[in-house]
Structure formats: structure tokens, C-alpha cells
Amino acid sequence: MADSTVLGLTAVIVAVTDEVPRVLVVRRMTHNLATPEQRDATEGLDALPFGPFAAERDRTLEQGLRRWVEAQTGLPLRYVEQLYTFGDKYRDPRELEGGPRVVSVGYMALAREAPLSGSGAAEWHDWYDYFPWEDWRDGKPDILTRTIAPALSRWIAAAPDTAIAAARAERVSTTFAEEELWDTERVLERYELLYSAGLVEEARRDRAIRQRLGLVLDNGHLDEPGLAARMGSPMAQDNRRILAVALGRLRGKLKYRPLVFDLLPPQFTLFRLQRTVEALSGVQLHKQNFRRLVLAGGLVEATGTQEARTGGRPAELHRFRRDVLRERVAAGIGLPQVRMVD
Description:
It is a single chain. By secondary structure, the protein is of the alpha+beta class. The protein contains nine helices and eleven strands. The protein has helices at about 60-75, 140-155, 160-175, 185-195, 200-210, 240-255, 270-280, 285-295, 325, and strands spanning about 5-15, 20-25, 50, 80-85, 100-110, 125, 270, 285, 300-305, 315-320, 340. Strands 1, 2, 3, 4, 5 and 6 form a six-stranded mixed beta sheet that branches. About 35% of the residues are buried.
């Protein structure tokens, strides 16, 4: 059994509701790859919808994914794209005890939030609950200044020699850069750096499992109990890493693909479009520059109707102009006018 491999399918399902970027998580799974904790919704950590690929039943991987998602959440998927294949050794800790290696093909799906059903005790959660350092819409997050930066400085100082300290310092300076150099797409690099330093709960959990089994430990972790609990909500197995990959991918694609319109109703105001882009990118945009960019790019067109409001000036409704897909290859929103607020 120790040398066997099984294939699974994992879904990152994203929605934006009331300017909050949301991800769909489940608390219960009943298939044969579920851990004992995942079989009980009162004990399991938040997990992304996941299930084994049934080659005898599903013609394609995507077909299997859609089937598992609908069974666990009651949500039929629309836009889906393959994200990455996750197959690191021991990503499922049961492999340490002789279980099979679980390789999972990850997919990203965009949806509009809807009531949930199914077997998974599914819920919509704000994705910044898992990555609080990624939300700059109201300025530099306090967690960066008060918690992460001091902890990473201690991690650098704790290096066993000057070469390792220098390598750590360079990694920190490029990944957690100052405001003017902050790269919104480097979500995975930032999460993996925090994992390497032992600053997220998943790192402490994985280390405890290896210690219990008498395996060689990575000595690069800071040993500060309680710190990881302040670093966002942990997820089952490596699901927060998978979510980080999806967040970085989605932020990058905003610049050249019109994915944001899959998260909006057929008609929307420019204000709602801006707020949705801000929710996904985690930064505040300059209102006039954003509107000029969207209108000049021919991405939207006015519908001739206005949004009904109880007070204030009515806002004009727009719709996505699908002809843009035939007019040019890159048809994203683009974020050249990002304004970080400190």
C-alpha cells in the first residue's frame, strides 16, 4: 500500500458577494479518501470540495470534479479551468503511516453565490480569513506590521549561519516587499515562506506528525506556540496552499482575461465592477482611472437603463461587451492604476 498512488480532484470555487471575495468550503466528506476528521462536520477543518477520480464512471477529470462538487455542495459549476496538479509526498499525512500517495488535480471555478445543499456541510467563507495579509483595500494590513514582519526578523536572526541568514533575508525582502514593490500575484510564495518559517498552523501540524513518527525534522521553524493561531484560519491538509495558487492565478488573469464578468450579473454598475475587481486583487483602485481604462478598452457598454435606488443619483447599468473576445487576444481589466493606501 505504501507505494500506491490514488488520484483525486479538488475544486477552488470563487464568488464575490457584497464586495466580499468568497470561497466554497466543506466540513464533511464521505468518500474513501476522506480522513476520519473529514467524516464528521463538527471536527473537520475547512476543506475545499474534493473526491476521488472514478475512471470507470467519469469520462473526463472535469466531469468527475463537477459530479463531486454538486454532490457535496449542491452547486452546479459553470466556468472551470484546470489549476495545477498537487502531488507532494506526505501531502496527505496518512502516507507517513503507509497509506497511498494522494495526487490531486486542482481546478478553479467562478460562480455566483447561491444557497447550498449536498452532503458536505458546505459554507461560503471570506478568503481573506485564510490570507489576512493579502487584503490591502484599507491600507497595509496590521498583521504585516505587528505580527509577520517582527516574526520574520526573528526567523532571520535565528539562522544557524550568516549564509542562511542572508538567503532568508533576501527571500523575505522579495516576497514581503514594501508597498511600492508589493506583487499581488505572489500569494503562493508568501504562504510558502510563512510555512517554511513555521508561522502557519499547517507547518506546526505537519511538524508534530513527523515528530510523533520519529522522522527527521526541519530545523528552520520558529518555535513560538500561539503565533500561528494569529496567521489566518488553517485548512485541512494542504488546502490553504491550493487556495493560494488559485488566488494568485486569478489575480494574474484579471489583467488579460475578462474573468471578472463571470462573477457579476448580466447588468451591473461600474461601481460594482470596480468593487469586485478590488475584492479579488486586494487593492484599492483609483475610481476615475479605472473607469477610463474599462470604457476605453471597450470591455463594457451602457444598457440605457439605470439601477433603481432609494436615494441619491441613479447609476447607469452596463453589460460585458462580448465582441471584445473576437477583437483582441488580451481582454482583461488590467490594473495599471493601482493605488496602495497606507
